[in-house]
Design a protein that fits this description.
FAD/NAD-bd_sf, FAD/NAD(P)-binding domain, alpha+beta, 19 strands, 8-stranded mixed sheet, oxidoreductase
Length: 424
């Protein structure tokens, strides 16, 4: 997510200093992009003894890692039985096991490293707006319970009690999940990665990656040049032509968010337990309480850059649909950014050339998924053992007619909103 609107004060940075420097001489690993995946990989690689240089085109948290909704949700879009049908039993079990632990990785890291990150782990509610969606929740709950997950079905009254919103048919809760201040988390991840020995430079975009024998030569806008045995490109929705075909293998969309003024005590019935919530619509909305008592709500927005507050009006309508009593509350913060979506709604790992690796596609699970990928990716870069990766390495597959993505996304969103409005 690229914040063309300034990052909201809802997400506050920690005060701990981060030392930025550029390595002298060549290194084992260059990481392009200082988000959750890039910094997590840099941290684990540095602690494994590799020399690491991280290069970030903007500021820490300028991408999706700094401006997302802060929901830490384990699992993937696909449930375990779907993964088994797609991948086979062995690969599905490996991926399901990895995905089930992603929230643990985040919250364990915060605790172990004593990170200065506001967080709460009271679960995630997926609220069903139709009977069809409720039956999907029944199956999802059954499958995850079979894998030992701390999940439960919720009836209409229980969802209303947990959310304070009326109109849902029921849903389910995943108690492994939680919420974090994402901007603080990515800043603290940068701090501990540099403390571990990784070098970091900001505001200097990589312009070229050229393979010279067994070495990759990396050059930047600022005139820097460095060689590396391995390169991780962790740019996601901000990817450009640095890696051929990568940016055409997914579609980026804009995710918009709003935050109310702090809610008075009379509205304490809204999300009283601090859970994160997403609904079951095709064009879903997600929401949570911020540490200072605001209601923060997000969802899809237009692909163009916003010009006025009216560009966030669809989120205000969703807010008032859920909570009519908040109609008089001021919207104090509005922001947006990019997210990368793959056609199959599946995260992908690629290695188009030896020593050049990248991941794409978070599908609303980015905080836990990308931070958790850091350790196995670092291990693979250090050892070359692909068996430690939770996902298979696959070729980059450009989307046909990718140049027409804006028209396609606009049509998809319009059609999905029409179906969402018709369903009961």
């Amino acid at each position: 997510m690229q914040p063309l609107v300034p990052v909201s004060p809802v997400w506050r940075r920690p005060v701990s200093p981060i030392v930025c420097r550029f390595a002298e001489g060549d290194v084992d690993l260059v990481v392009v992009g200082a988000g959750f995946q890039g910094l997590s990989t840099a941290l684990h690689a540095a602690r494994a003894g590799l020399s690491v240089q991280v290069i970030e085109a903007g500021a820490i948290g300028a991408g999706a890692s700094g401006v997302n909704g802060g929901q830490v949700i384990p699992g993937l879009k696909q449930d375990p039985e779907t993964l088994r049908a797609l991948l086979g039993e062995a690969a599905a079990n490996r991926l399901t096991g990895f995905a089930s632990r992603t929230a643990d990785v985040v919250f364990d890291l915060i605790a172990k490293e004593k990170l200065e990150v506001e967080h709460q782990r009271n679960g995630w509610v997926q609220a069903a707006h139709t009977e069809t969606a409720l039956q999907t929740a029944v199956q999802r709950n059954r499958q995850w319970r079979a894998h030992g997950a701390d999940v439960a079905l919720l009836n209409r009254a229980e969802v209303e009690l947990l959310t304070g919103a009326q109109g849902y048919r029921g849903g389910w809760i995943d108690r492994r999940a939680g919420v974090v201040n994402p901007l603080a988390l990515v800043h603290e991840l940068a701090r501990i990665a540099t403390d571990a020995g990784a070098d970091l430079v900001l505001n200097d975009a990589v312009t070229s990656l050229v393979r010279d024998g067994h070495t990759w030569r990396i050059r930047t806008v600022g005139g820097r040049s460095i060689g590396a045995r391995k390169v991780l490109v962790a740019t996601h929705a901000c990817s450009d032509s640095l890696v051929p075909k990568l940016a055409r293998s997914f579609v980026w969309m804009n995710s918009f968010q709003i935050a109310t003024e702090p809610l008075p005590a009379e509205f304490d019935f809204i999300l009283p337990g601090g859970q994160a919530v997403s609904d079951s619509r095709r064009i879903l909305v997600y929401y949570r309480r911020s540490p200072d008592g605001r209601l923060v709500l997000g969802g899809r927005g237009p692909m163009r850059a916003p010009k006025t507050a009216q560009d966030w009006a669809h989120l205000e309508r969703a807010l008032h649909r859920l909570y009519p009593m908040l109609a008089s509350m001021r919207i104090e913060h509005r922001w947006f950014g990019r997210v990368a979506m793959t056609p199959d709604q599946f995260p992908h790992l690629h290695e188009p050339e030896a020593g050049l690796i990248m991941a794409a596609g978070c599908q609303g699970r980015g905080v836990g998924l990308m931070l958790s990928l850091g350790e196995p990716v670092a291990r693979y870069l250090a050892t070359g053992d692909a068996g430690c990766l939770p996902l298979p390495l696959t070729p980059i597959r450009p989307i046909p007619l990718h140049r027409f993505r804006r028209i396609g996304v606009a049509a998809y969103i319009a059609w999905s909103r029409l179906l969402d409005g018709l369903e009961r």
